[in-house]
Structures are given as structure tokens and as C-alpha cells.
Amino acid sequence: MSERVVEVVAGVITDKRGRILLSRRTPNRDMPGLWEFPGGKREPGETPEAALARELDEELGIEVVVGAPLMVVPQRYPTKRLRLDVRHVAQWHGVPKGREGQALAWVAPDKLGRYSMPPADLPVVAALRAPDRYLVTPPPGADDAAWLRALDDALRSGIRRVQLRLPGIDPDRQGRLLTEAALRCRRRGADLLFNGAPELAQAAGVGLHLKAAALREHVVRPVAPGLLLAASCHDADDLAQAARLGCDFVVLGAVAETASHPGQSGIGWAGFAGLREHSALPIYVIGGMTPDDIDDARRHGAQGIAAIRGLWPGAT
């Protein structure tokens, strides 16, 4: 397989009703019949913005103003490596038509998951629909009330996805905190995933987050339909197992040195992007991350960041 990277640009085009335009790949292309965000290859010397404007004119017959970047997804296919650069389309003029014989569909964001798409496009769907921050809770210490107030503060600040970790906590106290955390997350419309026993997550009606070691032990999805499943991953084998198990998303790292692992430099952004190529799952990057790193994370194919200190109120 050639190591040359094919540079592709795509646009998220939204109409006045908030629907997003998808284009269906024609029979004469690879992966025929799959739906994708419209766009095409960037020619040598072209900027991404110029390439996207040209492609959308050629494919759809519309003039566009290219807006802010959404994310860049590196993806390895059997015969090529691809780098998908996705931009919001801030404005567009004309009536989109399939000028190359392709079918088009306007799709509500919450219906995007119903459309079969190439692996590189799947993380883009998650970026449009799911949070860009995944809070990992610190141990509660001796003061449960103070810990719950901090969780409330995090939810008020806009956190909408939480991994609840309660290591070393006795079962009764663990159950109380899980119940209280679930109540608070439901009030704010936030996802809660429990990093612990699957039966406790099931009883509480919340998602499950698997440690890497637990991920390798399961052969079937350990949560009921409708509940989120996530996992911590460290290498390509973990990512492949997460995909086999049907995880909804994963956490990958550590990318940078963390206070909990001083002296360990992490895999770095290049290492993260190299692993990202092998998976179509939404991936949160972890390891010394703060909200200031979200743009970098998106440029390397991440859904966003996962963190304790970087997202927990008052953490040092």
C-alpha cells in the first residue's frame, strides 16, 4: 500500500431547518452506495478552502463561504491513507443538485446515525452530535457533599458527558454516590458512564466505561441496548477490541505527561493520529488535557478531550 496521504476536504452544509446535506457515493467509485459529507480531493497547491469551494461548485452547483474547521480525520484504508479535512459551510447560494449523478439527502442531526457512511465520516457525525469534553471524576475524598457540589458546578459550566470513577469506595457509599450523580446528570441532560461493575451501571440505568483490562475480558456487549458503552484504550489492539464489542466511543492516551504519571512523556499528537488512522470510533484524547487543547484534538481526529484536573472545578 502506498504511504502517500490523499488529502480530502468536505463540508457540513446546513439548511434553515438545521438539516445537514449528505451525498451518496456513485457505483463507479470505491465504497459505492455509502453516504458522505460532500467534498473531494484537494489538488496540489490548493488551500483547503479553495478546494472545498471548487468541489462543492462542481458536485452540487452551489457557491459557498467556507467557515470554521470542524475536525481533521486521518484514516487508513486497505489501499490508501486519507486525511479528511471537514469545514463548516458558513453560507451558500444556489440549489444543491447531484451534478455527477449522486443522490442527495437533507438529514436531521439526530438521524445521521441511520446512514451508512465511510469510516472517515463516522467520527464527523459524532463531532456534530456529541460533547467535546468528557469529564473523569476524581475520588470523592471524605466529603461527599462537597464532591457533589463540584459535580453540580461542572454540569452548570456545560459538561454534558461524565465518567464516574469511585475507586476504593465501599459498596453502600458507592451506590449512594452513583444514584446522586445519575440524578444530577439527568437533570442537566448529561450522559453518565460508570467506571465499575456492569451490574451497578445497569441497575442505575447509566452507561458503562470499561478499563482497558476489562475491555479485553468481554466478548459480548455488557450493557443493555440504549445505554452507552465506552472504554479506555492504549494501543491498536484495544481500539480493535472496542470496535468488536460495539463501544460507542473510547478514550485514548495518555498523549502528554500527567501529574499522576510524572516523567512519562505520553504518545504525543503524532502517536495519537497514527492510532486514530486504524479506527472509525469517536475518540477522546486524554493525558494533560484542558479545554485549550480541544482545537488541537480536533485537528488530529479526536472527538475532544477527556480529563480530570482539566475539567473538574477547583482541581489543581
Class of the largest domain, according to the CATH hierarchy? Alpha Beta
The CATH architecture term of the largest domain is Alpha-Beta Barrel
State the end-to-end CA separation: 47 Å
CATH fold annotation of the largest domain: TIM Barrel
Instruction: Calculate Rg over CA atoms.
Output: 21 Å
Q: Beta-strand percentage?
A: 25-35%
Output the number of helix runs.
9
Q: Estimate percent helicity.
A: 25-40%
Q: What profile does the largest beta sheet have? A: 8 strands, parallel, barrel
Overall form? elongated
- The strand order across the widest sheet is 8-9-10-11-12-13-14-15
Secondary-structure element order, N to C: EEEEHEEEHEHEHEHEHEHEHEHE
Q: Would you identify the CATH H-level superfamily of the largest domain?
A: Aldolase class I
Mean pLDDT, rounded to whole units?
95
Produce the secondary structure layout.
Blueprint: E1 5-12, E2 20-24, E3 35-36, E4 39-41, H1 48-60, E5 63-77, E6 80-93, E7 104-107, H2 122-129, E8 133-136, H3 144-156, E9 161-165, H4 171-188, E10 191-195, H5 198-204, E11 207-210, H6 212-217, E12 229-233, H7 236-245, E13 249-253, H8 268-276, E14 283-286, H9 294-299, E15 304-307
Parallel strand pairs: 1-6, 8-9, 8-15, 9-10, 10-11, 11-12, 12-13, 13-14, 14-15
Antiparallel strand pairs: 1-4, 2-3, 2-7, 5-6
Helix pairs in contact: 3-4
Walk me through what this model shows.
With 316 residues, this protein is of the alpha/beta class. It has two domains: 5-120, Nucleoside Triphosphate Pyrophosphohydrolase, CATH 3.90.79.10; 133-307, Aldolase class I (TIM Barrel). 28% of the residues lie in helices and 28% in strands. It has nine helices and 15 strands. The strands form three sheets. The chain has an eight-stranded parallel beta barrel. The protein has a four-stranded mixed β-sheet with strand order 4-1-6-5, with helices on both faces. Helix 7 (236-245) links the parallel strand 12 and strand 13. The protein is elongated, with a radius of gyration of 21 Å. The mean pLDDT is 95.
